[in-house]
Every structure is written in C-alpha cells, then in structure tokens.
Design brief:
With 178 residues, the protein is α+β, with helices and mostly antiparallel strands. The chain folds into two domains: 4-76, no CATH class; 86-173, Winged helix-like DNA-binding domain superfamily/Winged helix DNA-binding domain (Arc Repressor Mutant, subunit A, Orthogonal Bundle), CATH 1.10.10. The chain has helices spanning 46-60, 64-76, 86-96, 106-112, 119-127, 155-165; strands at 4-10, 13-20, 23-28, 104-105, 140-141. It has a three-stranded antiparallel sheet, with helices on one face. A two-stranded parallel sheet has the order 4-5. Helix 4 crosses helix 5 (119-127).
Amino acid sequence: MAPAVLQLDSPIGAIAIAFTDRGVAGVDLAGRRRSPLPVEDAPPTAAAREVADAIGALLGATGDDARRAADAILRAAPLDDAHLPDFDRRVHALARAIPPGRTRTYGELAVALDQPGAAQAVGRALGRNPFPIVVPCHRIVAADGGLGGFSAPGGPAAKRRLLALEGAWQYDQAPLFA
C-alpha cells in the first residue's frame, strides 16, 4: 500500500503526514507531501486523523493539560519504522518519552542507551528522524545549554519555535541567530 498523505496547517506552517497501514510513515514540516514511496490520495483513516489532530493540538495548545493529552496520542501512535536501524528506533523511543515542555541532552540519551560516548551518534539518529513532532527530536538539546542541531526546514530557529510553543524555551534564552 502506498502511503496516504494528510496535510494540516499549524502555528509553524504547513505539515504533511504520510501514513501506511503500519502507522505514521513520515512527517514533513514543510508540507511538501514528499515521500520515498508513491503517494495515494486516499481518505485518512481514523487513526491518521487522530495523529494529525494531536499534532495540531500540541502546537496550538494553550495549557499543559492540553499538551499532555496531545502528546499521549502521539506517543502511542504506531510508526512505520521497520526500515530504520535498531539504534535509531531506540533513540526515537527515548525521545518519545520526553514530555512536552521538557528537554534532554544528546548525552543524556546516550547514557540512557548505555552508550555514554555516543552523543554524536544520537544526534545523527535524530537528524535522520523521518517523524518530527511525533518523535519529538526538537526536545533534545546540547549539553552547553544551546539548541543543538535541527535538520527540519527552518533549522535551529524552527526548533526554538517548537520548544517555545511547548513552553520549554523562551526566545531570550539564546541569541536570535543561533
């Protein structure tokens, strides 16, 4: 089955979410409907609609309770990730456990994987994350208090915006052009 794509508008712009019968196949924060597979314009399933609604709610939530409710839906959403390396899937699982409004460092995730020297490998795995927001890679920051990288469109500025929407980052915490 080719992935079906659902598009939504959000406070950070257009988002496209690809779904297969196995779960979320990808999230594109630029809303370009790109997929490595052919895309079909099939009506979204109830599960796909629930994930899209949760992304919209998480990014538009005005309170912690609403963020937690949306995050719980995203955390439980199945991912079509069998094609990813085991290390990436383990990193993604740890990232999904971080609640909205909180951050962890790349090094903390490496320690949680029992690989304390693997902070850069964690960063590379997150840089390949095909499921941004569903796998909230924006919640992982540098040990020095900086943002660290963000491979989605908009780079670190987009990461800062996502963290600010979740109440985890204030715009005055980092230089404007970091």
